[in-house]
Design a protein that fits this description.
The complex is a heterodimer of chains A (285) and B (787).
Chain A (H helix, E strand, L loop, with lengths): L6 E3 L4 H11 L4 E4 L5 H6 L7 E4 L9 E4 L2 E5 L15 H10 L5 H6 L2 H7 L5 H9 L2 E6 L2 E6 L4 E3 L2 E2 L6 E8 L6 E7 L9 E10 L2 E10 L6 E2 L1 H7 L6 H14 L10 H20 L1
Parallel strand pairs in A: 1-3, 2-3
Antiparallel strand pairs in A: 4-5, 5-10, 6-7, 6-10, 8-9, 11-12, 12-13, 13-14
Helix pairs in contact in A: 7-8, 8-9
Chain B lengths: L20 H5 L13 E7 L5 E7 L5 E4 L30 E2 L5 E7 L2 H10 L1 E6 L6 H5 L14 E8 L3 H6 L3 E9 L2 E2 L7 E7 L4 E6 L4 H12 L6 E4 L15 H13 L2 E5 L2 H7 L2 E2 L2 E9 L5 E13 L10 H9 L8 E10 L13 H19 L3 H8 L6 E2 L5 E2 L4 H12 L1 H13 L3 E13 L3 H5 L10 E7 L5 E5 L8 H13 L6 E4 L17 H28 L6 E4 L2 E4 L5 E3 H10 L13 E6 L4 E14 L4 E12 L6 H20 L30 E6 L16 H17 L9 E2 L3 H24 L1
Parallel strand pairs in B: 1-13, 8-31, 11-12, 16-17, 22-23, 29-30
Antiparallel strand pairs in B: 1-5, 2-4, 2-6, 3-5, 7-17, 8-15, 9-14, 10-11, 10-13, 15-16, 18-19, 20-28, 21-22, 21-27, 24-25, 25-26, 28-29
Classes of the chains: A alpha+beta (285), B alpha+beta (787).
């Protein structure tokens, strides 16, 4: 479990990083952010990049800012920046709640938001957040800047539409409007493990009825996504436990769960139903 | 003979801090992987579970060693001359065929670990695949491929017994209760993986093998035998060890190769196993299925016990314990702490194309305790008797007790520890909370496990197994140098048990000095007397006994010296706290002055006085059983199948507590492993024999989040079978906890009418059982409607 040899580069600006990536991508180059996923994958030799471009020295890639209804998160912002609510209100509290489900303290101090997004593990909490809220990923390459909506970004297990020479620089999230109910629930075998299933749920109440429901599912299928069937089961209904259970059951039938040697599809259906119900209960709490 | 350690024991029984910990906690320990080496070794391992090696291609100039280079190295072939055991041979590198995924096929050498791994990747193994047998069931099927041609039906060992009149007793019983239980495969998962450093000394031609092992002397014997060299050509050092738990009490084939390489290349080499290789190719254990059957009287008395044990032993027989250790221990100890009228048991060990099975803390007993404790709970339910009461009616109360397989249980407190744990548990209060929680849709459960643990057994007990290698006794050498400091050299090989502290406590009391003056030397074949190492909860009992005997001799010799110096009778002199004093007077002399005189003034003590202070003690006890009751409290999330540990109580009796803090640590660590055993840890193979759980993302030990605080109640029964009064308890936590947790899970799920008799009780298994119960209920409802 020692990585194959690689060349190491540590540019100090986004421009230099983009130029290096453009130059080295044909030989096999990877961006090193927090390294919490890439380094183990290299240790298993599942990835053997010829070049590592370390972006940890680029200050411009870190930070969280809000302008109007858009929150912009620098790609190299550490998970730990979300451990306490980064903005006041329910949305900040939600981000902190999600953050606490990401692995363990030491990993959160190194791992980055943009690293999680570009690594695109199906069990990534931030990928689920991006898919549910319809985030926009901003990528730079020598060919210029590209804005990629979440729906066109996640393509499969650890596969995104980022080109080999594109550097993810920031992620834009639409801050849910005031009054939005938000709830997150994740299930994993042990505290801090990869999610077997998780749900991010949001809705508003208009005239006593659920409006604009969003049910995002993570860890269940190769790509995080919203679940229209579950959302349809909520739209226009009162926010009752019966409605939440109906949404959970609708999703149970609608998903196409991943399976492996230890977890079968039926179990993942059970888990996602529980996650949806519990995330919705947290919305209502 | 059986006098107490000391009339006035100032150090035994105290919670002294461990002398081991300062270095370990400040990062100053000495571990095998710390040693620099000229060359690094990586083993190329079989990617297939079964096949014939057609070719091994390596790049030009690659330093690679394969079986053909090791033609002069004998295969590992431990012998057991009983129970129909068929000896099987394991070449230290696979020869002609591979028998499990991860079997070492070649070793490559490079100047760094990274380069060695690069090289290993570039070696191409051309293996013609053959059909593997992965499960015991598949291996026993008619016409199944044979793992070793000489083992018909893949049955490497088979044993059966039936006490006289069994059938009549069974058939006349009020009720027969049957439980099939399954313990899935596990890894002991020491934090430090296996590692070896072999250094050739050109001046002497010797090799020093520093390695992470629980048995340095036996490692030296085994490797010297396999290489055909005298033992004096090899020194084995076991430095600080990052956990063994049994995984390091079997000979690693890789260590043999390392010594061969050091002799061949006349240099120093290092091998540090990585986690994936450890999970794939170090030893596994606990892959056992048991069908247990109890014939009960209406009063809950267990009149006859039947067992049928099938253990998946993997591909090879580890040295020295052979492939038979799990089935044979299951067979011998299935009755556990219960007095049973009649006994019938059949047990078999099955070879498969999986990693070899070897001892892991508790060996077969976590599985057999699980079996008999599930039986007790199920019988309690079926007979309408309280689970505590049915145990009380069956626990052994008269000692010594002879088990149906001839084991002699010495003085213990089976009933008393059960009562003590139950009292601490407040079961009526819990039942009220449980009922309330159920009304709220929350499912709490409590589970009990009572067991006894056979510990500290000497050579007669091991001889009964019929192995060619018969461990048991221990020797301790104690020297007091002229400055009065004491060195104790031991043949056991502690690796986390705190023996340097506890032996110092025993020796200090016996000599009359203080623990700070005592250094315990272990883990070096050049420095210590031949001994068997640390395993089977033996070290404190047997090395402790040998240390006590040696220390008493030293004490008696100090008395003789003191009598001369103080001009008093030996009977009037007392040695304590580093001084010899004439009782009732202020006349005294420091122990260090006695030591100086014994070495430098030996002419003063007359003829027959052996100069100096060097004594030896041997101890070879018959064995002693410690015992405990565990009570686990859990909450099961029926939607996800997750189990949360809420509380854990242990009431134990391991005789005299030499150091209660260390005892508590041993119990807590064992319970943690038992919780992992019951809920989390599982080695999984697919049907082709490919391992699916070779990373710590897939093999899940419990973390601090999954382990509750463990409440411990002690009793101290002094048994005549152990001269220090101490019984072993190193394995008990791991033995008792799984059954308690599994019973608690089943108690929590009682309203659903499901039984979880497979461990680990993963969320997937629990949900599958709940789904099946729901479908059955639906089906029943439909049938009712249509009728």
């Amino acid at each position: 479990m020692k990585s194959a040899a690689f060349s190491y580069h540590a540019p100090k600006s986004v421009e230099a990083a983009v130029a290096l990536l453009g130059e080295l991508a044909p030989e096999g180059a990877r961006i090193l952010a927090g390294g919490q996923s890439l380094v183990p994958i290299m240790a298993f030799r599942l990835a053997q990049p010829a070049h590592l471009i370390d972006i940890n020295r680029i200050a411009a890639l870190t930070g969280i800012s809000v302008s109007g209804t858009i929150m912009t998160i620098g790609a190299a912002t550490r998970h730990a920046a979300f451990e306490r609510p980064p903005v006041p209100g329910a949305f900040g509290a939600l981000l902190a709640d999600i953050c606490h489900n990401i692995a363990h303290g030491p990993i959160r101090t190194r791992g980055t938001f943009g690293g999680s997004i570009s690594h695109a593990d199906p069990a990534s909490e931030w990928c689920l957040l991006a898919a549910t809220l319809g985030a926009t990923m901003i990528a730079r390459s020598p060919r210029g800047e590209r804005r990629i909506p979440a729906s066109a970004f996640f393509e499969g297990i650890m596969t995104t539409s980022l080109a080999a020479d594109e550097l993810l620089t920031a992620i834009e999230l639409s801050v849910p409007p005031a009054g939005t109910h938000m709830g997150f629930y994740e299930y994993s075998r042990r505290h801090g493990d990869f999610a077997i299933g998780m749900t991010l749920a949001t809705f508003r109440i208009e005239a006593g009825r659920i409006a604009d429901p969003r049910i995002g599912l993570g860890g269940i299928e190769p790509v995080p996504r919203r679940c229209p069937e579950a959302e349809a089961a909520l739209l226009g209904r009162e926010a009752t436990e019966a409605a939440f259970a109906a949404a959970a059951e609708a999703a149970r039938e609608a998903v196409d769960p991943m399976e492996d040697g230890q977890i079968d599809a039926e179990y993942r259906r059970d888990v996602i139903a529980a996650c949806i119900r519990r995330a919705l209960l947290r919305c209502a709490a | 003979m059986n006098r107490p350690v000391s009339d006035d024991a100032p150090f035994v029984g105290r919670k002294l801090r461990r002398v081991e910990d300062r270095a370990l906690l400040t990062g100053r320990g000495h571990f095998t992987a710390d040693l620099p080496a000229a060359l690094h070794v990586r083993f190329v391992r079989s990617p297939l579970a079964s096949g014939r090696i057609a070719g091994i291609d390596s790049p030009e100039g690659c330093r690679i060693v394969t079986a053909s280079d090791l033609a002069d190295v004998a295969p590992i072939r431990p012998m057991l001359r009983k129970f129909g055991y068929i000896p099987i041979a394991q070449p230290v590198l696979a020869r002609d065929v591979v028998r499990y995924t991860g079997e070492p096929v070649a070793a490559v050498l490079a100047e760094t670990e990274e380069q060695a791994e690069d090289l290993a990747e570039s070696v191409l193994l051309d293996i013609d695949p053959a059909d593997p047998v992965v499960t015991a069931e598949a291996a026993m099927a008619p016409g199944a491929p044979l793992v070793h041609a000489e083992v018909a039906g893949n049955i490497v060992v088979s044993v059966a017994t039936e006490t006289p009149g069994f059938a009549a007793i069974r058939d006349s019983a009020h009720r027969i209760v049957r439980v099939p239980v399954r313990s899935h495969r596990q890894s002991a998962l020491p934090i430090e993986t296996r590692a070896a450093h072999a250094a050739f000394d050109a001046a002497t031609g010797r090799v020093t093998l520093t390695c992470t092992t629980q048995m340095p002397h036996l490692t030296r014997t085994a490797i010297a035998d396999l290489l055909g060299i005298p033992e004096s050509d090899l020194r084995v050092i076991a430095p600080d060890i990052g956990g063994g738990f049994g995984q390091k009490m079997s000979l690693a084939t890789e260590y043999v190769v390392m010594v061969w390489l050091a002799r061949r290349y006349r240099t120093s080499l290092s091998w540090v196993e990585d986690r994936r290789d450890n999970l794939m190719a170090s030893f596994h254990s606990r892959d056992i299925g048991i069908v247990i059957e109890g014939a009960f009287g209406a009063d809950g008395r267990l009149l006859a016990l039947g067992g049928d044990v099938t253990a998946n032993c993997g591909a090879y027989a580890p040295f020295p314990n052979t492939a038979a250790v799990e089935p044979l221990m299951s067979f011998a100890e299935l009755p556990g702490p219960y007095a049973i009228g009649a006994y019938r048991c059949a047990a078999r060990g099955i070879l498969t194309n999986t990693c070899s099975s070897a001892p892991y803390r508790g060996v077969a007993r976590p599985a057999i305790t699980f079996a008999i404790e599930r039986l007790m709970d199920k019988a309690a339910t079926e007979l309408g008797i309280d689970p505590v009461e049915i145990r009380q009616r069956n626990l052994v109360a008269d000692f010594p007790h002879v088990s149906p397989t001839g084991l002699v249980y010495d003085q213990a407190t089976y009933r008393e520890t059960l009562a003590a744990a139950v009292a601490a548990a407040d079961l009526p209060g819990f039942r009220a909370r449980q009922a309330q929680a159920r009304r709220e849709g929350r499912y709490l459960g409590v589970g009990i496990s009572t067991f006894c643990e056979r510990t500290g057994y000497g050579s007669p007990a091991f001889a009964a197994r019929g192995m060619d290698v018969v461990p048991g006794w221990e020797t301790v050498e104690i020297t007091m140098d002229p400055s009065g400091t004491v060195e104790a050299r031991i043949g056991t090989s502690p690796h986390g048990q705190g023996l340097r502290t506890t032996l110092a406590q025993i020796i200090a009391d016996a000599i009359g000095t203080v623990p700070e003056k005592i250094t315990v030397i272990h883990g070096d074949t050049d420095r210590t007397p031949y001994g068997w190492g640390s395993f089977a909860s033996r070290s404190l009992v047997i090395s402790g006994g040998a240390a006590l005997l040696a220390a008493r001799k030293l004490h008696d010799k100090l008395l003789r010296v003191a009598a001369e110096l103080l001009e008093a009778a030996e009977a009037d002199i007392e040695i304590a706290n580093g001084a010899a004093t004439v009782r009732g007077t202020d006349r005294s002399v420091a122990v260090k002055d006695l030591a100086r005189a014994a070495w430098h003034q030996s002419h003063r003590f007359g003829t027959g006085f052996t100069p100096g202070l060097a004594e030896q003690g041997h101890y070879d006890p018959s064995g002693t059983f410690s015992n405990a009751t565990h009570i686990a409290f859990v909450e099961v999330d029926t939607e996800t199948g997750a189990v949360a540990m809420r509380r854990f109580i242990v009431a134990e009796d391991a005789g005299r507590l030499i150091n209660p803090m260390i005892v508590d640590g041993q119990i807590a660590g064992g319970v943690a492993q038992g919780i992992g055993n019951a809920l989390l840890e599982e080695i999984v193979y697919d049907e082709t024999g490919n391992i699916l759980s070779a990373t710590l993302a897939d093999f899940l030990p419990p973390t601090v989040h999954e382990i509750p605080r463990i409440e411990i109640i002690h009793r101290e029964t002094i048994s005549p079978e152990t001269i220090t009064g101490a019984k072993g308890l190193g394995e008990g936590g791991a033995i008792g906890a799984p059954a308690a947790v599994m019973n608690a899970v089943n108690d929590a799920l009682a309203p659903f009418g499901v039984a979880i008799d497979e461990m680990p009780a993963t969320p997937m298994r629990i949900r599958a059982a709940l789904r099946a119960a729901k479908n059955t209920a639906r089906h029943a409802a439909k049938v009712e409607v249509s009728a």
